[in-house]
Amino acid sequence: MTMLKSTLIFLALLLALYLGYALKPNYVTSQQNEAVDLEQIIPLEFADWKVDNTLPIILGNPEQEELLGALYSQLLSRTYVDSKGNRLMLSIAYGDVQNKSYQVHFPEVCYPAQGFELLAQREKEINVSGVRIPVKEIDTKQGKRNEFVTYWVRVGDDLVISRFDQKIKTIMYGLEGRVVDGLLFRVSTINYDESYVMQYNFIRSLLENLPEKSREFLLGKIEHE
Question: Binning pLDDT at 50, 70 and 90, where does residue 224 land?
């Protein structure tokens, strides 16, 4: 074995030992922060929107429910209606630990897995009181049902809209010795021509009616312009 090869193997072993130590969960974010209850922080009524209790709750299949229960520590699903009768679905999934095994799932993966066709996806930004929020829009279809989705994913203090960015952020936090939490914020509407306009208005109204701590829980630490 050459000296160069021996040196490279030695350096690789040192790097593996360092990463093994650095990635240890010696600081778990969710254990340090004040506990948050999604049911409590998301209002049932705000601006021109209120929860619509007239629609039946649709239960998923047992296998899917079991998977969601393993991935997330909290799930919030509601349908809101405005004074014009427009309806919008809100879903927030929170996981108190983000690591290699447990990570927030992205809608462009979950929807096709449930039989939806993914028609298009776009990266956008929403400006809410000087805060620029990166989001992703996806157009989906299942039979005669067209569902339009806007979402973002929070990993620790940061927002991401791709699985690659999610993995990079998780690794970077791990190198700091931190195991962070994660959250998926998703809104969707069915068969509306102005779906995204409605969704953006809903998101702005919701965030503007939340206290600062609740906004930070949903968005992480985003700087104002």
Answer: low
